[in-house]
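Model it.
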Amino acid sequence: MDIIPVIDILNNQVVKAIKGNRNSYKSINYKLYNSTEPRDIIYQIVNRYKPKTIYIADLSAILMHKIDKNLYKSIFEAFPKINFWVDSGKCKISLTRKHINYYPVICSESSTRFSPTSNKSHKCIYSFDFMGKLLGHKPIHKYERVEPSKIIIMDLLQVGSDKKINYNLAKKIIRKNNKDYYIAGGVKSILDIKKAGTLGARGVLISTILHENKLRKIFIQKEKTSL
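Modeled.
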């Protein structure tokens, strides 16, 4: 199982997600990290858990169509061995050079960005976004032949809530093919992580148990060695 830490950024500060209600996001646990600055928190996550991948949701880009390309340039260059999956909404991160550790996330919620004929989609991470139903203006989940190989099942109602993984939703989407599926939202315990694996998920995205310091370093290291 891949265990992928998630950080949400708003106005260049890390915040905590609450049930997909982006207007109610709160500041991250300052006592845990002694900072709300993205690079500081990424450094501490990398130092504690040694993940291969980190997911970033840029709320300034998603909500206000503002993006700080210099912030990402500094992140990608400071952590060259970490793959960054970045949801920047409809905003493109215009960088002066290619960073091989940058993977844009194409979300159904922002589905106007997705072109089923684009040969660039292979490096993207695709996200099915749900809030009671699939979000988006196009039925892009039908473009199975051109979907990227990695797909996130994102239930926004479970994000930052006390609810468990939406297992029924995951069962409907995860298929036996060459795609890697990742579950996001409702991962509250090691048991949830293991159950996601039994459903056929390649990994999970975690936020609440990460930022509340409930995920043991030894578990992530054990999972990495079993890949």
